[in-house]
Amino acid sequence: MAYPDTPTSPGGMSARRLTNRNTNRYSVTALFSMAAEQDVEVEDDLARAQKRLRDLKGKISAQSKKNFVLERDVRYLDSRIALLIQNRMALDEQREVERTLEEVDPTEGHYPDDRKIQQYSNLFFLLQSEPRHIAALCRLVSLSEIDTLLQTVMFTLYGNQYESREEHLLLTMFQSVLSAQFEMATEFGSLLRANTPVSRMMTTYTRRGPGQSYLKSVLAERINSLIEHKDLNLEINPVKVYEQMINQIEEESGSLPPNLPRGVAPEVAAENPDVQAIIAPRLTMLMEIANSFLVTIIESMESVPYGIRWICKQIRSLTRRKYPEATDYAICSLIGGFFFLRFINPAIVTPQAYMLVEGVPAKHPRRTLTLIAKMLQNLANKPSYAKEVYMMTLNPFVENNKARINQFLNNLCEVGDFYDTLEMDQYMALSKKDLMIHITMNELYNTHSLILQHIETLSPNDKQHLRILTDELGSAPPQVPRKENRTIELNLYSRWETPVQDIQSALMDSVSSSDMLYMETKSIFVQLIRSLPHAAEKRPYNLAAIAERAATTKDAVLVRKGIKVKEMLRELEEQKIVEESDGYKLMQEEVAAELVHLGNLREKVVLETKSLEAVYKTICDHNNYMRSQLEQYKAYLQNVRLTAVKDKGSTTGVGVVTVGGKEKKMTKAVVLGPYRFTHAQLEKEGIIVESNVPDNRRPNIYFNITSPTPGTFIIALHYKGREKAILEMDLKIDDLLEKQKDNKHLLDLEYVQLNVPKVLGLLKKVFAKR
User: Fold this and answer.
1) For 99-152, what is each residue's pLDDT tens digit?
2) Is residue 237 part of a domain?
3) Is 540 found in the same domain as 637?
4) Are strands 746-748 and 727-732 parallel, antiparallel or unpaired?
5) Of 704, 641, 635, 719, whose CA–CA distance to 671 is shortest?
6) Are the beta carbons of 23 and 436 closer than 8 angstroms?
7) Which of 320, 299, 311 is nearest to 339 (CA)?
8) Is 522 in the same domain as 589?
9) Is 701 helix (H, G, I), strand (E, B) or coil?
10) Under DSSP, is residue 25 helix (H, G, I), strand (E, B) or coil?
11) Are 666 and 657 in contact (CB under 8 A)?
12) pLDDT tens, 511-565?
């Protein structure tokens, strides 16, 4: 999205290009151009590239919403299945979990009637175009309600993430929320740090398409090059370094010397000269790596999404007003709290959740990434102490970069405002017949319900628009079952503002008729030169010849425009605005400049499309990953609830499994397997994350996986030629799901470490259908 402080008018040059024409027409040129574009019939490389980019942005916006909803489903199922694993869930709760996995059935349920839809159309136009209502609502709802509301606000009401009007309205809402947060703040230190609806809003905002795009382009390469070094151990916690050291000594010599006891205090470990010798070079390397991350982030400032920079600007501005005595360092620590704590660091610590890397990083790189994030956070916060004493040893990094990070955080705030543009965007919205959002029935009813709960605060006067609309709508319908939660297209209309039927006539209030004629003539010439083969190649442009050529082609549209523009040139001559004697020099220069701008624009559009294609792929990959998690939950719910065996103390092996809410009798379980997998197979599929098996022995290693009863598995590690397994491990799917829920992604099999989500995927693939 172009920054609002650098306007380029699609139909004209900036005001500085006004040579001998002293008019105010350029203040509304952008608005005119937006109107003119509504019926542009140009089909050249730029137009095609712009269409591809628009389509791609639409797909990213839609997919971001799907991902947000899926992430919430996965979080909910994580917590519910944990209860199920611990046998603390009643049968009706189990069925509720199953319903969470149901797909929407388009034949189920019913839509509101036409009158209700019209009322919702008016209500959601008001909510979208007057963000103060949503801003107030976000402050009033509870922490348990905020996620559902944020889904509607971030991905539905303002879901078109690359459309300037919706983005600017959303940022206006943020300003209102932040302003209230600063008003209510009792102490500087607690500002924006606690887990509140406001902090959740800020985090959710960074998860939209533009934020994800930035993280991918800036961090992915650096993180990937770091995690390639699986064995690079940069641990600096003296206790852990001491443990690793004595474990290695014991492994190599078979025993421990008496001067190296186990379980020593942190200060004893820190004073050990061998531990200090191990840590010293690691500190140097950590500071080098953290510095390389910092340099990359600082150099990427121009790529930071406008909205994120604008929020930083609001934090700085509000802090200066509320705390005039606050130092620059203190203000920058608040900005850094948002930029690093809520945006950058989560992606560094869990790059797999942001799809910046394939799979979960190995143990040592994972720890290194956590340390890097801590260092960047300490740099942004500039604390006088560190939570972990050993982090103080990295203070030189903080001291050396204080000034640099301050400069960066201040520079982040240097973006223009968008209020003028927003006024035009709002005006244009009234001329659009296709202002529309895609919204689910439950989003509709939930927003309606929340507004009613807080209507006395939101709209105390019964003459206010919000109160009138909610009074007419009446009580909010209850939430519908998941199967009936269909998505509808809700066209947005204003109840009180008249739609603009003829935008060019409406513009006449602010632009003289001669200025309007000049702009439209120029706009048509730009279209003609883009449409006529080879017309752009001949310089300088002979405008009269171009108009004549268009008027005599076989294309009816070009003929109409050619005749029209010839007549317009004649009128401009009569008004002494252009002259035929100098080849319409002023008009010709501005048309040429506009075409140069459009040519450069095409290159930018192509570059942006390439970048966003990578983002779209990442978002789709993340969607597939979360879907596979949901599939594992489905398999678990369908195959593993052998509840009656334990309850009845039965020895017959006949149990009951609940599938889709219906109980089915099962005969004694049949042993499935063994199924055989080579070390190379599991390594290739990313199931083996780390292996201690020497390279020359790996071809002789294989794994047998057996399922003696549903939900129970035995993984046996074998060496070719030996009858007995080297190692056997019993696994319950409950334990694997619990590990996954707790973000413990590694399963230790002594000789190898396995990726838990991928093991679950393998078990589902091999056993679910047998």
Assistant:
1) 656 666 666 667 788 899 999 999 999 998 888 899 889 888 887 788 888 888
2) yes
3) yes
4) unpaired
5) 704
6) no
7) 311
8) yes
9) strand
10) helix
11) yes
12) 567 777 887 888 888 888 888 887 877 778 888 889 999 899 888 888 988 999 8
Spatial CB neighbours of 273, under 8 Å, sequence gap ≥ 6: none
CA distances from 305 to 200, 207, 298, 343 (A): 19, 12, 14, 12
Quick check: 609 and 49 in contact, CB under 8 A?
Answer: yes
> Tell me, what's the pLDDT at 639?
55
Q: Name 362's Cβ contacts closer than 8 Å, sequence gap at least 6.
A: 227, 230, 689, 690
Same domain, 530 and 677: no
Of 96, 56, 63, the closest CA to residue 80 belongs to 96
Q: Are 587 and 726 part of one and the same domain?
A: no
Residues 746, 630, single domain; the answer is no
Q: Cis check for the bond before 305: say yes or no (omega within 30 of 0).
A: no
Check: CB of residue 213 under 8 Å from CB of residue 161.
no
Q: Which domain holds residue 598?
A: 7-16+25-104+501-641
Given a contact cutoff of 8 angstroms between Cβ atoms, the answer to whether 688 and 716 are in contact is no
Task: List the structure tokens of 692.
Answer: 């201690």
Q: How far is CA 29 from CA 165, 511, 517, 543, 710, in A?
A: 17, 9, 12, 21, 70
Domain count, the chain: 3
Residue 648: what pLDDT? 36
Residues 543, 591 contacting (CB under 8 angstroms): yes
CA of residue 555 relative to chain centroid, distance? 45
Exposure of 91 in the CB half-sphere (CA atoms within 13 A): 11
Give the whole-angstrom CA distance, residue 451 versus residue 455: 6
CA angle 142, 148, 150 (to 5 degrees): 90
Q: Which two tokens stand for residue 719?
A: 């060496």
* Domain match, 615 and 509 both: yes
Give the residues of the chain that fall short of pLDDT 50. Answer: 1-40, 88-89, 502-504, 506-508, 640-668
Contact 439, 421 (CB under 8 A): no
Q: Characterize 169-198 residue by residue with b for buried, 16 or more Cβ atoms within 10 angstroms of its Cβ, and e for exposed.
A: bbbbbbbbbbbebbeebeeeeebbeeeebb
pTM to 2 decimal places = 0.65
Is residue 396 a part of any domain in this protein? Answer: yes
Please give the structure tokens belonging to residue 90: 């009643």
Considering the domain architecture, whether residues 696 and 613 belong to the same structural domain is answered as no
Contact 546, 532 (CB under 8 A): yes
How far are the Cα atoms of 671, 728, 748, 765 from residue 675, in angstroms, in the given order? 11, 14, 20, 12
Report the alpha-carbon distance of residue 376 to residue 394 in Å, rounded: 11
Q: Which two tokens stand for residue 551?
A: 């008027």
Token pair in block for residue 560 = 């109409």
Report the distance separating Cα 376 and Cα 433, nearest Å: 48
Cα radius of gyration (the chain): 32
CA distance 484 to 104: 6
Distance CA 74, CA 72 (A): 5
**Residue 453 has which token pair?**
């709960």
Main-chain phi, psi angles of 759, to 5 degrees: -65, -45
Residues 6+ apart with CB under 8 A from 442: 479, 480, 485
